[in-house]
Amino acid sequence: MREGKRKKLEAKGWKIGGPRELLGLSGEEESYIELRLRLAEGLKARRKAHGVSQIELAQAMRSSQSRVAKMEAGDPTVSLDLIVKSLLTLGTSNRELAAIITRG
Amino acid sequence: MREGKRKKLEAKGWKIGGPRELLGLSGEEESYIELRLRLAEGLKARRKAHGVSQIELAQAMRSSQSRVAKMEAGDPTVSLDLIVKSLLTLGTSNRELAAIITRG
DNA sequence: CTAGTATATGTCAGATCTGACATAGTAGCA
DNA sequence: TGCTACTATGTCAGATCTGACATATACTAG
To answer: CA A39, C1' D21: Å apart?
Structure first.
């Protein structure tokens, strides 16, 4: 992983495990985090496109404004489950979900 | 939601909330569960295609055989996070992930 | 400036998920 | 039959995530 990118992620609160790539083990951790960030971006973009505030989205899915903010900020304490549920609450289809994941 | 499908999901341990669809609120819950089941299926198929046992996959991702079994069974106590991490551990690309989600 | 609206960030008790373990079931083979 | 490998299911203490709340920041409009 690029050192710059690592710095950026650690600033968001991610703790990147040692260089397991040297053991031929992975890149899986990086893929996972990037996937999350992509979904987070997709969520923010979609919410704004719908003209919905964080509070409104939070109410629609019975969560809270702070949790929505954390989702969109890529906070590591938010689960993929919650992010995906948010996208689905906004009416995102499987096809659109796939597009968000693929986009890069 | 079809009554038959609901029965099937409840047998797996899912508790389906009341008919919120009447309030115009959703189908989001159903989408979420179906997405999970699709990923679960994709995981099982991919693992087998790789000729990997549940134990081997579990070791590769520092989980346990029982958890892998639950993932593949669509058990509701398993998070999306874990299922996605499993797929990534098997080397699934974003494009393949998207295909799994879209396939239906 | 003040008020209103939206978003960001930190905290925490309670809810949920996790790995580990035990155990049961299944399939193939000698 | 027994033996081995693989998978399924249940349980639980400890780890992680959650909604709620407080508070801070940023931007507009009056």
So the answer is: 27
